[in-house]
């Protein structure tokens, strides 16, 4: 297997682009793909400080490295954010994830902030799994979105970047079509502009396959946690899992299928959702963060107060 560009030993086949690439040419190709995505969707237009949400896994650590590389030519600063979720019962999953995130922040010399859920908010995701009557990944997702938004603002960022990859987004699109949950699909955006008190959100890897990201991280020697979260039930439960497998099998048969599904969704389908009525947002009476007008207290504060009930000495932030 020889690299299409230089004839050296190829390390990856990109079937949908009809390419075989050696490590050097793959890195170049991968970074250009991310840069083209960022430019096409104007992700960094007006961004000065980009907070990168780094869990310590392959996607977010790769995102950190690529955005750090782009930061000098595109004139923005990168700040890393990690949340220690407190998923440690029987494992050291969260502690290890945070260690990997810090390793990357320090190797690149970027500023960073680690939010320890237990210390700053008085609870852990392990506790939420036991005490909150909703699937743990749903609570965890809510907590991560809230804490990232808040930490992003605290470090002075105007933009928050997350490492969702193409396979994640393709699964989300298919789940949305399958369930007919239009409001969920309408919220799926490569770029969510800063509005209603929220930071701008961007997904620079949303057109990069999981397999390409893993290859980039491994061949570049980026340190990342390989273990999965012990609570790992893929988003969407067993149906979501099957949809993902079907998508990946279809990709094998029709190279580029997921890419076109997601790119066409973003470019041609989602614009039809622009006219859907938007939520009216107010301010949470407890924390002051944006919340749906129908609610006085945001979902995060509601979950947190349930978790802190009965805990002595818990101080509301
Ligand atoms: Fe959180 Fe679920 Fe992901 Fe674990 S698998 S980190 S609980 S969302
Ligand atoms: Zn080559
Ligand atoms: Zn609140």
TrEMBL record:
InterPro entries in the cross-refs: Rossmann-like_a/b/a_fold, TilS/TtcA_N, tRNA_thiolation_TtcA_Ctu1, TtuA-like_LIM_N
Matching SUPFAM superfamilies: Adenine nucleotide alpha hydrolases-like (SSF52402)
Signal peptide: none
Alphabetized GO MF terms: ATP binding; metal ion binding; transferase activity; tRNA binding
Record keywords: ATP-binding, Metal-binding, Nucleotide-binding, Transferase, Zinc
Binding site residues for Zn(2+) 2: 284, 287, 298, 301
GO BP: any one term: tRNA wobble position uridine thiolation
Listed name of the protein: Putative ATPase of the PP-loop superfamily implicated in cell cycle control
Domain (2-thiouridine synthetase TtuA-like N-terminal LIM) ranges: 2-26
Domain (tRNA(Ile)-lysidine/2-thiocytidine synthase N-terminal): residue spans on this chain: 50-228
Residues reported to bind Zn(2+) 1: 3, 6, 22, 25
GO cellular component: cytosolic tRNA wobble base thiouridylase complex
Sites where the protein binds ATP: 53-55, 59, 83, 163, 168
Source organism of the structure: Metallosphaera yellowstonensis MK1
Pfam assignment, any one: TtuA_LIM_N
